[in-house]
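Figure 2 data, in text form.
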Amino acid sequence: MKRVLLITLIAVMAAGGAVFAAGSQDQSGGLDIGIAMPETHVLRWVTDGKKLQENATKLGYNAEVVWADGDQTKQNKQIEDFITKGAKLIVVASINTGINTVLADAAKAGIEIISYDRLLMDSGDFNYYTTFNLKKVGFLQATAIEQALDLKNAKEPQYITLFAGSPTDNNAYFFYDGAMEVLNPYIASGKLVVVGPYPKTSADKTNFQRIATEGWRAENAKARMENLLTNDAKDVVLDAVLAPNDPVGRAIVEACSNDAKYDTIEKLPIITGQDGELPTVQYILENKQYMTVFKDSRLLADATIQLADAILKGQTPNIPGTEKTTFNTNVKDVTTYLLDPILVTKDNVKKVIIDSGYYTADELKSIGQ
C-alpha cells in the first residue's frame, strides 16, 4: 500500500529528525514556511504535514515539514532550526506548553506563527489559529451514541464508560465537554449509567485525569480498558464507550474482543472515534467501530496555507468555508478559523470518506473497496 510505505518511511526518518524540503520559486533558497507536526503515531499528522507542505509549495513557497515523535524538547529544537534558517512563518501543532519559550524566540525574530488544530495555550506570541469546531466533534460522538442506543426511548438503563484525550492537549477538553452536553441529561435521568470515573465536565480535573489518555497513545487506552473490563465493568455488559479518537477507539475494540462478553462483533459496544483513519474505516465497514468524526485535513491544510499566504503578502485574510471567531490562550484572544466536522457511520462512510478521494485506490483495495 503506497500510503503505508510512505508512512513507514516518514516515521523512520522523522525519528531521526529528518526534514522534508520542497522547492520554491524563491531563488534566494531561504525557508519561507516551517511546518512542525507533533507525532506520527496518530496517522492524521502524517497526512496533515504532507498536505500543508504540498499546498505551500504549489503557491511557490519553500516549505519544510518535521515531526516531533510526541517529544516537546525535540519539537523545540526543530523550531529553533526553522528560526536559524530564517523562516518567515511557522505552522505548528504542539505537544504541550513547553513550546512557549521557543515561540517567544520566534516572535522576537519577527516570525509569524499559526497555531494548527491544537491551540498554543498560555502564549501571547501568535495571532492566528486554524482548527475544526472542537465542541462539535464531541457533540457528534455523543449524538451517535444517543441515536445508536435510542436513548430518547430507552426503557432500561444503558451502560457506558468514558475516555478522554491527552490532558496536555487543550482540544481534549473541548471534545469531552461537547460530548457531555449531550450525555449528561441521560445520565441524570438514569437512562445512562456510567461505569468507572465520571467527570461531569472537564472542569472536574481529578476525574478527567483518570479517564484521560496520555499522549493520545492507543496502548494507554487499551491498558485502561482491560483494567476496566476486569474491575469496574466486570459484572456489567457495556452498551457504549465514548472514545476520543480513532486509535483509542480501535484499542478499545481490541480490548473488548479479548473479553468473553464481547467475543463476537454483534456483542461489541457502540464505540466512537474521530479522524477517519483508514483502519477505522475498515472497522466501521466490519461493524467493529460504530462511528468516526471526519475532519477533512485537506480542507484544514488548504485554509491554513491560504491564511499563511495572506499573512506573508500583508493582505487581510479571507478564508472561504470557515467560521471566523476568537479563542483565548489564557493570555490573549487569537483570530480563529473553524471548519465543520462530519459524523460518519457505516451508512455514509463510502460517500463522505471513500468517494471523496480521501484515500487512494490502492489504499482502498486493502479494505475491499
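Caption note: The chain has a mean pLDDT of 91.
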